[in-house]
Amino acid sequence: MKRLLDYDPLTKTTQYLHIDQVGKAVIESIQDTTDILEFNQKAAALLDRKRDMWFVGSIPIQTCQKWAKESNTRVYSKEWMVVAKRRIQEREYRKLNPNNIKL
């Protein structure tokens, strides 16, 4: 059974509650990242590497939370920033760093 808990129009995040046969409850968060990825592409196209500050990209909050959970850190902590700098270079997250700027 899947039940809608919340929808945040600002972050476009939807939360659902799942309850399985044995009564275990799980909260699932899904974020529509289409706008973020389009913004990253448009910002990358406008970059002038000689004159501008280099825009790396925006990271969806769901991805930030995933990285924090995988690395056992708090989102936006110093430890998490080290993880984020490494992860944003990976091929899987290429759309978050469209200019492939090394950090």
Q: Can you offer a commentary on this structure?
A:
With about 100 residues, this protein is α+β, with helices and mostly antiparallel strands. The protein folds into 2 domains: about 1-30; about 35-103, no CATH class. It is about 35% helix and about 20% strand. A 3-stranded antiparallel sheet has the order 1-2-3, with no helix packed on it. A hairpin with a 5-residue loop joins strand 2 and strand 3. Helix 2 packs across helix 3. About 10% of the residues are buried. The model has no long low-confidence stretch (mean pLDDT about 90).
Cα distance, first to last residue?
43 Å
Assembly category:
single chain
Q: Which class of secondary structure composition applies to the elements?
A: alpha+beta
Strand order of the largest sheet: 1-2-3
Rg, alpha carbons: 17 Å
**Count of separate structural domains:** 2
Helix content: 25-40%
pLDDT < 50 stretches: none
| Number of β-strand runs | 3
Task: State mean pLDDT (0 to 100 scale).
Answer: 88
Largest sheet: 3 strands, antiparallel
